[in-house]
Amino acid sequence: MEKLQGKTALITGGNKGIGLGVAEAMLQQGMKVAITGRDTEDLADAKAKLEKIGEVKTFQVDVTDLAGQETVVNEIVSDWGSLDVVIANAGVGYFAPIDELSAEQWNATIDTNLTGVFNTVKASLEPIKKAQGYIITIASLAGTNFFASGAAYNASKFGLVGFTQAIMLDLRQYGVKVTTIMPGSVSTYFNNHTPSEADAWKIQPEDIGQMVMDLLHMHPRTLPSKVEVRPTTPPSK
């Protein structure tokens, strides 16, 4: 995209962590940003922080609700006139050996991390095609590297990588770009973690924000369709 000033974006799970870092980066370049989340208090805190930078909307909605995603997209287009960028970021993680992993944990992981992205993309298709916009999904290195106790999470992220690459092929004929970003360890609140100074070695949310902006500034003829990103110097094991 040549100019980002005034462009509009939807970020799922934008109330903290990676989503919030991406929202801040977009607002700093003059974009209008709508974020979604499930927690009212987190959304209010995020809105108070983001409003100091630029124009922001917040929506309390779950990505597993397709109708809810459609309502969000319709309101964005109605108020702002377009939807140019979608960042499908919302995700959950349950980690347990298969003999301990519950059906509820499996369903919650797949429903949010995979079906939730489908819902967000499906709801956004018409305005994104009209804008010849950009869809970015936030996957994980767990979408390539499997590990013990990762049955649900690995399945969701392997699926998300495959889904994103397939829709990239579907949508480029309309001038729509699609990329999946696959981070390693990121300093976020994911899986009930509280970031601290001990996380200084990890990728920071603002680093992913910078990466998203780099992708949006990429020349239209070039598409990095899958981007793996790791901490430069993880602790020695």
From TrEMBL:
Q: Which Pfam families match?
A: adh_short (PF00106)
Q: Transmembrane region positions?
A: none
Residues of the Ketoreductase domain = 7-187
Which SUPFAM superfamilies does the UniProt entry name for this protein? NAD(P)-binding Rossmann-fold domains
The UniProt entry, under InterPro entries, shows: KR_dom (IPR057326), NAD(P)-bd_dom_sf (IPR036291), Sc_DH/Rdtase_CS (IPR020904), SDR (IPR050259), SDR_fam (IPR002347)
| Source domain of life | Bacteria
Q: Which family does it belong to?
A: Belongs to the short-chain dehydrogenases/reductases (SDR) family.
Q: What is this protein called?
A: SDR family oxidoreductase
| Organism from which the protein derives | Algivirga pacifica
